[in-house]
Amino acid sequence: MMPHHTVPHAVGSSVRLPLLLLFASCVAFGCRPGAESAAPEAVLPIRVHVVTARHGEISDVRRVTGQTTALRIVRLASPVAGRVTFLAPQPGDSLADGAVAARVMPTENEAALNGMGVLGRGAALQPHERDAAQRLGHGLRAGDIPIHASFAGLVSARLHNPGELVAQNDVLLELFDPQSLYVVAQIPIEMLPDVRNGVPVEVVAGGARIRGHIDALVPAVDPQALSVPARVTLEQPLLPPMLSAAVECRLQVARHSDAKLLPRAALISSQIGDQGTVMIASDGKAQHRVLHLGLRSDSEVEVTDGLAADDSVIVEGQYALPDGTAIEPVTVTP
Q1: Residue 289: pLDDT above 80?
Q2: Partners of 263 in beta bridges
Q3: Is the pTM of this model over 0.70?
């Protein structure tokens, strides 16, 4: 008699084998429900900011270093060897024209006074002799020499103090006229072809900004700095007045009043010469373009050729974009 479970076992094996083969095929060939109906995702355009060129004024401004000095500087010196008996002014003080700045007692007068003192202590003088000695002493003490300010100005330096011995021609005070301040700018040699008399200059000294212009180029070259000094005349007094102060000079060597201008941020690459590369938004695509450039300021560049009035130039989001990239231009105000 045949066992009752033999026939069902054979039937079950024959059914499982095709199912296993179908599963293996799906694993090998990536079969999954709905795979045959999946579509590639659409590439979204990249949003960028664009501007059109504007017309306006642009200047070529060069920055150089400079130092303040004065046309009227005097060093008040002792005319004789002696002792300083009066010297009140301090640096920063004002002196009026003709004011007494210092007094010096000549060495001869001081020696005579010392001798009279010794004589008076060692000998008994008659009343008339004592009176004569006192008058002589007063005259010698009044013989200290006054030193006057030759013009109204400010004290920039004080080199001695009252009571000190000084030699003849020793400088006691330095005085300058704040109304005569000017600036000496150091012009690099390579900049000389663009600099001439009359070039406008903005002098920045601390928080002050003073306008001026180049009056003259000094015909001498600093061999260490390879620069040429230029005299800059100021249109108004420098406040506060500072002598020998380091300043920045901004020279306006060129100016164009009706130029086609783009923000400097639009430049992808800018050579030292007269060319620069930008990205143009055209028909929803990004395109590289080389422009010819003119003057440049801190914020803008002048375009002399290669750009139409209605061209949209990308100013934000343009880096690393290849030609033909789909973009979504958004116009912004430059």
Answers
A1: yes
A2: 300
A3: no
